[in-house]
Give the backbone structure.
Amino acid sequence: MSTFNFTWNSDNKTPKGKVFARKRKPTDEATKTTSKPSLLTGIKNNNPNKNDSTPFRITKTSANTNANLKSKDILSIDATAHQKIKSSKNLINTKKTSPFTPRFQEKTFEGSAKLVKRKRKKDKTAAKTDAEEGTINNPKQNQTVQTTQRSQTHSLFAVGHKDVYINTNIKGKSIVEKVFSTGKKFGDLEIHKYLVSNLEKIHYTSLTNVQEKSIPEIMSGKNVLIRSQTGSGKTLAYAVPIIDALQSINPRIQRNNGVQAIVVVPTRELALQTHELFGKINTFQWIVVGHLCGGENRNTEKTRLRKGIHVLIATPGRLLDHILHTAAFKTNNIRCLVLDEADRLLDMGFKRDIIRIVEELDKAKTNSEYDPISLLKGKTGGAKSEVTIRSEETFPLRDPSSNSRQTVLLSATLTKGIAELADFAMKDHIYVDALDESATVNPEHMVIPNTVKQKFIVTHVKHRLFTLSALLISKAQQSSKVFVFMATSQMVDYHYELFTRCLVKMPKNRGKLKSGDIVLLDDVVQESDDDDEVVLDIEFFKLHGSMDQASRKDVFTRFRSAKKGVLLCTDVAARGIDVPTADCIVQYTGPQSDEDYIHRVGRTGRAGKSGFSFIFLTHEEQDFVTRLQEHKVFLQQHDPDDFLNHLSVLMEEPDHQNAATALQRRYENALSNDKDLHKLACLAYTSWSRFYNTYSSKMRSIFDFKNVNLGHYVASFGLKETPTEVAGIIRGQMAKVERPRLNRKLAIHEDDQPKRPAQKRKIKSVSLTTSEYASGLAPNKKRKKKKDVN
């Protein structure tokens, strides 16, 4: 460091205190040993009113030590000031472990932060290379990698402690509906013996409680409203009377007799399932059963209707379409109408279609009863009234000449909307409840089979993805058949691709790819699948309403016939779907209503079989358990560590946090290296956020969009971006798609919709240009004469 000696001249010509020369101090060895240079950090304070803030004192001395200089005053630093500067130098060299760090030391560490960061990055890259080769021998390098990996582990598990305050020890009595009551059999009913033997072949021998109560009432010809829990055998309750009545008609009905009974169901999968059940119990070859579903070829359906169908199972929209626009579809012979899963029909917005269907059937029946001869004679009509026929208690399906129509409505819950629909669709109906103590039960209480063990899992938002993966791993090892309900079709598509690519297959040497405490799975994404092996012997399926009909039919058929599998689905599979071997239900996102929870859980524990139900909740959503307790539904908490044990075994990592972090990083790296998968993840998160913001006012106190941490939810989809960045990605990728134009010829509600005002054609007035003696024809235009060129 260069030092300077400040001097000034003491002549009379120059004012005192004025600096006139600065000489560099000699740097030879003798000078260095005699006097140590000092750093001058202050100057003389000439302002008398201002306090001197310099850390040392300036003194005036006179000396003649240099021959080149005359008598002068030398500015020198006092010994105390020199001692202070020396102590400040010692503070700079103080170790990092010192409890006190001066301010000027912070800049030193900030300046070296980039160097430390680069060094960690180089060490991490070298550690990855050595880890692949299996040679990591540098202890300092290992320590750096361990520090880096621990920081990443901390980012996934760095969540604040939150308590689970739900009291699961509340003692209450759940409402239990007995599936089998007295042990009666189908042989005790007055049905054909061939039908009884066929039911026994497919293992239907004993009557369930709802079948025992409802079948006699239906066979007596009454309109019936039936309420029973899911999986109690409601389909057979109306299928057996319909088949038995049609086979008893003498002479046998022909195909040209047309449709005799219609069964309306909410979903296509339920239509296929009901059609399959009718086909199993129908041993009478002259009775034809068919179905109509949206998404299939309309011309093919027209051909089937033209040939003749006796029992028609259909979804509301397609059924109404054929009633209005298919001339070969005659509805005047329909004597039985069944509305299955009526609560779901209303929830899916089919109320308008159901009302229109009932009106069209009533209109067709009125037109068939029209007798102009009797009207000329002064009579009111030529046929018996509906009330007169019902008083005779005859089954309309057994009498082809009957002019009445029987209506059967079935539902798992009884709400105000169901009661209104029953009052509109049928009159003088009776109510059948499978519960013995239905008169004393509060309508707000929900009925769920006691064979289902209901549990809830409270997790942090960032832990949802690997916790679900661990649950599926444990169920795959138990050879289970699992339903996983998600909010949107985009979520189903994304998780299906993610699990089939990154969970079913794992690297063969995943136990060796370790650095520090964490398995380095797919830090460097492999270019080929040669190094991967199948670790889960289970097949994943997906099912949602955006799929085409052929794919939905294929998936539903394969999943029902599979011995084990995982079906990722939306609520399209929550109503009426019967998979007898399904033993586990997972609700990854909360239901939109209490009834949706009932129907989701009802996919397992059917017909007296046992099953499990798990619902994922965050700490902000755990009040949903209290809400279910008010409905007499009691859940038990399940510790997710039980599932993480299976994950640790699969990842060959004994520590749960390290195994979970490794799987999460595998998902994140897969998204970073696959643009299509990354796009699916962004779409899934966006659709989830829109869904979560549409909860009803009753459920919004629990599932409140304002209370969620969107950044953590982005991490639960395996994304590294912020919510704002994901929104920008979606806005850039989504193109404007034109809405498909509706075919007005096939419109089923065109009469109720407001019509566009007709545009008036402008008419030119010719009154001022024509004479009263004119012919009224347009005047001939005179042709222009061609000019001669010559």
Summary: Residues 452-733 form a domain with the Rossmann fold fold (CATH 3.40.50.300).
